[in-house]
Amino acid sequence: MSQDTPEFLLERHPNPVTPAERERLLQDPGFGRIFTDHMATVRYSADRGWHDARIGARADLSLNPSTLVLHYAQEIFEGLKAYRLPDGSATLFRPEANARRFRNSAARLAMAELPEDLFVASVEQLVRLERDWIPSADGASLYLRPFMIATEVALGTKPSTDYLYAVIASPVGAYFKGGGSAVTIWVSDNYTRAAPGGTGAAKCGGNYAASLQAQAEGAREGCDQVVFLDAVERRWVEELGGMNVFFVFADGSLQTPPLTGTILPGITRDSLITLARDLGMTVREEPYSIDQWQADAQSGKLAEAFACGTAAVVTPIGQVKGRKHGFTIGSGGAGEVTLRLKAALQDIQRGRSDDKHGWLHKVA
Ligand code: PLP
Ligand code: COI
């Protein structure tokens, strides 16, 4: 396949959702419940390389029971969003960054590395076709889920020789039920998500499987998300199950845990560091302990905290609970700096302010 202009063969869905039904579905999409008509796929085999790039009807996958992914979990994914701009056009936010992270995840999982231009072309061409599925309500968007699985039929533990890459699309509203209101998070002091030398910095399904027991424990305690501590000292705050975390101090400075290999390098995290610095704020990428977090929240040194990610956007953290911890941050609601950064990010994503870093990738 040519690597210069990756073109996907298009086979339209014979019975797509009607426009009236689509409009009804888009009224209240929730998160990850509704899917568009089409999907993009590309195949890889050791002898042919990347081939058979196509966009066709979204359909079930049929897998032999001894397909490698079902046994040894060679699976990676991405998450990015397409937005509708005020002029009706559609844009992706930093898809090149997702393409790079996808390649890094593949390398860590010993999978074939999808060329970045092929990744970008797959989401671009799927969004162009499905543009009517992009909700226009503020806070809503079309969530893209590129993923890749090992498809060789074998039972030996070894890197697969064959892969299926696919992209599905889902119109979404807010990730948390309360919309943009503050969430309560659970400190997991017994389960960890990632260890040094492990797969924490890769976006692989196994990391999420490892987080679900902790997430369920938090849910039983009335929490919305779980925050993980480092696996060595069980002391340093790393990230949430599906989001990075930022701390905002009373002196106006910001801090976020450094990327030491056990944390997912979030694209929202990276964008917010840039935007905060643009606004003249000091941002430190330094470790922060859970005990210090509690002490600073109680003394008032810490004013705000928030979670961030593609799905969560910027979500204020109001309360933290755990077996050994329990504290409220600021007033327990959304802080001023949190809201300012959220607005700065969303104004760029929605085309309401100057895209001075060139983050928007117009598609249609
Ligand atoms: N951390 C984890 C574990 C995640 O799943 C995500 C979501 O993708 C993030 C952080 C935030 O990454 P991004 O901002 O690129 O969506
Ligand atoms: C995303 O934000 O895109 C993620 O993959 C996180 C997940 C919790 C939905």
UniProtKB/TrEMBL annotation:
Pathway: Amino-acid biosynthesis; L-isoleucine biosynthesis; L-isoleucine from 2-oxobutanoate: step 4/4; Amino-acid biosynthesis; L-valine biosynthesis; L-valine from pyruvate: step 4/4; Amino-acid biosynthesis; L-leucine biosynthesis; L-leucine from 3-methyl-2-oxobutanoate: step 4/4. InterPro entries: Aminotrans_IV (IPR001544), Aminotrans_IV_CS (IPR018300), Aminotransferase-like (IPR036038), B_amino_transII (IPR005786), BCAT-like_C (IPR043132), BCAT-like_N (IPR043131), BCAT_family (IPR033939). The modification N6-(pyridoxal phosphate)lysine is found at K203. Its EC number is 2.6.1.42. Its cofactor is pyridoxal 5'-phosphate. One of its GO terms (biological process) is isoleucine biosynthetic process. Pfam families: Aminotran_4 (PF01063). GO terms for molecular function: L-isoleucine-2-oxoglutarate transaminase activity; L-leucine-2-oxoglutarate transaminase activity; L-valine-2-oxoglutarate transaminase activity. It comes from the Bacteria. It catalyses: L-leucine + 2-oxoglutarate = 4-methyl-2-oxopentanoate + L-glutamate; L-isoleucine + 2-oxoglutarate = (S)-3-methyl-2-oxopentanoate + L-glutamate; L-valine + 2-oxoglutarate = 3-methyl-2-oxobutanoate + L-glutamate. SUPFAM superfamilies: D-aminoacid aminotransferase-like PLP-dependent enzymes. Keywords: Amino-acid biosynthesis, Aminotransferase, Branched-chain amino acid biosynthesis, Pyridoxal phosphate, Transferase. Belongs to the class-IV pyridoxal-phosphate-dependent aminotransferase family. Acts on leucine, isoleucine and valine. This is Branched-chain-amino-acid aminotransferase.
